[in-house]
């Protein structure tokens, strides 16, 4: 962006040891601004990635750079970027996101509704854009504990509805969030005591308590290179556990957190009843059916795709997964009813 006028949107991209992905994200934003005729600025925040990363980021065509001396996590990176951003409309993005045609304009249009506190796009996992990542995955005590009725059918119906038509949700996945500055004035900034994950969950709960809606907008689409950058960072799991512990204890108390921790440990070795072993991560075509893919044995949440042509887990997605079981479930999109469940082991 050039000139002294205020931008229509400030995009804040937060990086930690993902310079290649951050550069691609910035390039996709710059192209989106040009293609969609949006006067936007880009603020790139690096969270103590080191001199080699900073040198690689210097070539990125951004309007402002913030180089933090310590890794304050995504929450701290967003907060640092907010201090530099000049627009009243904001797009917050992980570094491992590529904006697709129309995504920026669709998100900005959603923010025109004053009842909306934050909006998120539909995230695609693979390069071909066939596998959709979850639209909503709000933590639920009984669900995480593994009690109560099977949640999959209801979750599947709800997920397909959001993917197709969008709407208000209890929680938006935080790979990309669009919000107005006045929402941060009302709900506050991100809580930096969440070093990895759960920061957007806790913030969104404050947004809802302020009387504002969380809107999922499927007309806005991005590609999210889910889980790739996290694999490169040896401290990721320690930081994730710390965030999860803080969130669970804040929401459900110390006893609730202990119960959930034990339930999570049990599910590590669980397997859905009747799940058959698969020799490859693939399923045959089944007209009218969908496939759900998850590393969680409950398959809540899941990524999904239609089964009209059959399905094989894309190679670029396979490369991002850690060794362990991957569950593939065929289900009826009309009622969410599971039809068949298989498990494949990544070595």
List keywords for this structure.
Spore Coat Polysaccharide Biosynthesis Protein SpsA, Chain A; 347 residues; 26% strand; 2 domains; 9-stranded mixed beta sheet; alpha/beta; 5-stranded mixed beta sheet
Describe this structure in words.
- This protein has 347 residues and is an alpha/beta fold.
- It has two domains: 9-136 and 171-231, Spore Coat Polysaccharide Biosynthesis Protein SpsA, Chain A; 276-346.
- 35% of the residues lie in helices and 26% in strands.
- The protein is built from eleven helices and 16 strands.
- The chain has helices at 19-35, 51-57, 73-84, 103-111, 141-145, 152-165, 181-187, 199-209, 228-231, 236-267, 315-318, and strands at residues 9-15, 40-47, 64-68, 89-94, 97-99, 116-124, 167-169, 176-180, 213-224, 276-277, 282-283, 290-294, 303-306, 311-312, 324-331, 338-346.
- Strands 1, 2, 3, 4, 5, 6, 7, 8 and 9 form a nine-stranded mixed beta sheet that branches.
- Helix 2 (51-57) links the parallel strand 2 and strand 3.
- Helix 7 (181-187) packs across helix 8.
- The protein is globular and about 60 Å long.
């Amino acid at each position: 962006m050039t000139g002294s006028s205020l931008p229509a949107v400030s995009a804040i991209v937060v990086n930690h040891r993902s310079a290649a992905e951050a550069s691609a994200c910035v390039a996709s934003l710059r192209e989106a601004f040009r293609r969609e005729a949006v006067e936007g600025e880009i603020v790139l925040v690096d969270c103590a990635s080191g001199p080699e990363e900073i040198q690689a980021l210097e070539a990125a065509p951004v309007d402002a750079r913030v180089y933090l001396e310590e890794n304050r996590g995504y929450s701290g990176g967003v907060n640092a970027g907010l201090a530099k951003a000049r627009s009243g409309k904001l797009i917050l993005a992980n570094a491992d996101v590529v904006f697709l045609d129309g995504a920026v304009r669709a998100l900005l249009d959603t923010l025109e509704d004053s009842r909306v506190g934050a909006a998120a796009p539909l995230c695609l996992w693979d390069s071909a854009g066939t596998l959709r990542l979850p639209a909503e995955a709000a933590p639920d005590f009984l669900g995480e504990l593994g009690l109560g009725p099977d949640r999959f059918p209801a979750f599947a119906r709800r997920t397909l509805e959001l993917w197709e038509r969008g709407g208000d949700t209890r929680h938006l996945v935080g790979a990309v969030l669009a919000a107005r500055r006045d929402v941060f004035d009302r709900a506050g900034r991100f809580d930096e005591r969440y070093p990895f994950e759960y920061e957007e969950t806790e913030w969104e709960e404050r947004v809802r308590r302020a009387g504002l809606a969380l809107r999922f907008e499927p007309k806005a689409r991005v590609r999210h290179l889910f889980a790739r950058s996290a694999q490169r960072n040896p401290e990721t799991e320690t930081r994730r556990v710390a965030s999860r512990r803080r969130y669970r204890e804040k929401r459900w108390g110390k006893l609730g957190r202990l119960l959930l921790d034990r339930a999570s440990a049990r599910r590590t070795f669980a397997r859905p009843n009747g799940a058959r072993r698969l020799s490859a991560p693939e399923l045959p075509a089944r007209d009218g059916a969908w496939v759900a893919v998850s590393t969680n044995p409950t398959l809540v949440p899941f990524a999904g795709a239609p089964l009209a042509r059959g399905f094989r887990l894309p190679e670029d997605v396979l490369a991002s997964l850690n060794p362990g079981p991957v569950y593939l479930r065929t289900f009826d999109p009309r009622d969410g009813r599971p039809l068949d469940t298989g498990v494949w082991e990544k070595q």
